[in-house]
């Protein structure tokens, strides 16, 4: 027996397809199952980058204390006052997007902070990934299903392993 099942009906991420349409930004309230806290020395600058570059919106703010950002449902980021890292960490946080958003996100981020993006790169797990280093030196990955079909990946893997 298997404990896995298709759960696209509870996810804001659209069913993977090359013509997938992103969901609307979700402005409702819920108990957050996961979120990222990002320390920043400049809440306004950081919020501007995450909003204009990465497509988040300001769900609510407490001046000089907190900015709660969101994109889709369950894509929450809390910007909090603190010391920024001197360099990007090896750990990253990934946010789903759709293929049609990849170029616009890269362009918007590059306009705000030239040189902050890398990619997009096709990954072996069948996604296209754009890496962005934010003003706080957070490493953010925007990830979308690639146009390569999973059976093509399996075929390549089998060929590499002599199967």
TrEMBL record:
Gene3D superfamilies: 2,3-Dihydroxybiphenyl 1,2-Dioxygenase, domain 1 (3.10.180.10). GO terms for molecular function: transferase activity. Keywords: Transferase. This is Glycosyl transferase. It comes from Rhodococcus erythropolis.
């Amino acid at each position: 027996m298997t404990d896995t099942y298709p759960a696209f009906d509870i996810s804001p991420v659209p069913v993977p397809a090359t013509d997938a349409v992103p969901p609307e930004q979700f402005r409702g309230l819920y108990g957050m199952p996961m979120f990222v806290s990002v320390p920043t020395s400049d809440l306004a600058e950081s919020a501007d980058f995450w909003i204009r570059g990465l497509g988040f919106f300001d769900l609510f703010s407490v001046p000089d204390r907190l900015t709660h950002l969101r994109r889709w449902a369950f894509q929450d980021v809390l910007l909090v006052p603190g010391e920024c890292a001197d360099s990007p960490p090896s750990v990253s946080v990934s946010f789903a997007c759709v293929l049609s958003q990849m170029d616009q996100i890269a362009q918007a981020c590059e306009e705000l902070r030239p040189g902050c993006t890398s990619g997009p790169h096709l990954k072996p797990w069948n996604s296209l990934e754009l890496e962005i280093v934010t003003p706080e030196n957070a490493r953010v990955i925007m990830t979308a299903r690639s146009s390569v079909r999973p059976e093509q990946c399996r075929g390549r893997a089998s060929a590499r392993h002599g199967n």
